[in-house]
Amino acid sequence: MIDQESIKTAAKTLQSQGWRTSLTVLAIVLGITAIITLVSLGEGLNASVTKQFQSMGTDTLVVLPGKGFVESAFAQLRDDDDETIETVRGVSFAAEIYIASQQMEYKGERKTRLVIGIDPAQMSQMNIIGLVSLESGRVLSPRDQTAVMVGPRLAEKTFEKIVYVNNEIKMNDAHYRVVARLSKATNSFYGNFMDNAVILNSDQLTKIQPGIKPNRIFVKLDEGVKPDDVKERIENELELRHNQTDFQVMTPSQVGETAGSVIGLIQTILVGIAAISLVVGGVGVMNTMYMSVTERTSEVGVMKAIGAGNEQIRDIFLTEAALIGIIGGIIGTILGVGLATIITIAAQYGGFDLEAVITWPTIAGAVLFSMGLCLVFGYLPAKQAADLDPVEAIRRKG
């Protein structure tokens, strides 16, 4: 049983070993730092997704090209899909958007950013679902072929100089006048990409980039209908028109589940990698303990000769391993919290809604895991020390 005397003896031994102890603790610190950082950021990302998911409500569907996440990057919807969807029972309206990437120039500075095409006739619908809300200026009209609206992040953070209404942005060798600055999208789940983009008439975007098709269609449902029922009707209608299933209709719950699953998978993989580095640190603890047993063989023999039992000897070495784990766990936790906080600040400065979630159970679990791991890897060296024959141990000088 580990007692106060074992703790004092173990602490003095670790202190006397200096650099060796520091390097052993460092390996544990790095592993715990990585785990705390990844877990807290992963939980924060999940919380952010949940918050954004709640902001989209339960009465909005989204239609994407392709049958899966990978295919959506290469497949296309059709120009009249929104009209087809609006004929479906339970649909209030369907609003499509076009998404492209263009190099733009503002006051001599060039950047490549998203350009989003929206039919001016659907602008009010975009406002209803929380994607387009004016901060200043006016919405686009069908006659606006050289006018654009800009998202708040693009206006404030993309260029060195702030973009104001009536300023000009150059794209594709043409000048476009800014007629509006948008407020941050209230539907943050779908609207984050709008905040850092230039919005223009979809007709004009198809001229800039011929052959472009709608990237997604937002579907607002009638009050009181069941999203899953409307989804099934939309799928049946689009499949009939397309003669194939080259699209996907996502309900709010599906979007949330998909995002949560992807985040969870990534978090598990990263934490697993960090845990491997911690196991490597545990092997380092074992090697250090074996060296300590070898160097202190005579000392162990003397302790046994004056009455120390096998369990007492074992407990002294196990206490050393536990202290390494506790110290490494505490320092690693502090560094992990600090690193997660720095990443959070950097993400928020870049406009990404992320806040690290750090809980006491996570902190306690990390420290206990670190201590337990070191005890596991320290057990065999401790047992070796406890099993030493006192006479033979005294004869050896280590």
UniProtKB/TrEMBL annotation:
It is a multi-pass membrane protein. The lineage of its organism: Archaea, Candidatus Iainarchaeota, Candidatus Iainarchaeia, Candidatus Iainarchaeales, Candidatus Iainarchaeaceae. Its main location: membrane. One of its GO terms (molecular function) is transmembrane transporter activity. This is ABC transporter permease. It is found in: Cell membrane. Residues 21-236 form the MacB-like periplasmic core domain. Residues 273-388 form the ABC3 transporter permease C-terminal domain. Belongs to the ABC-4 integral membrane protein family. The chain crosses the membrane at residues 21-42, 262-286, 321-346, 358-380. Keywords: Cell membrane, Membrane, Transmembrane, Transmembrane helix. Pfam families: FtsX, MacB_PCD. GO terms for cellular component: plasma membrane. It comes from the Archaea.
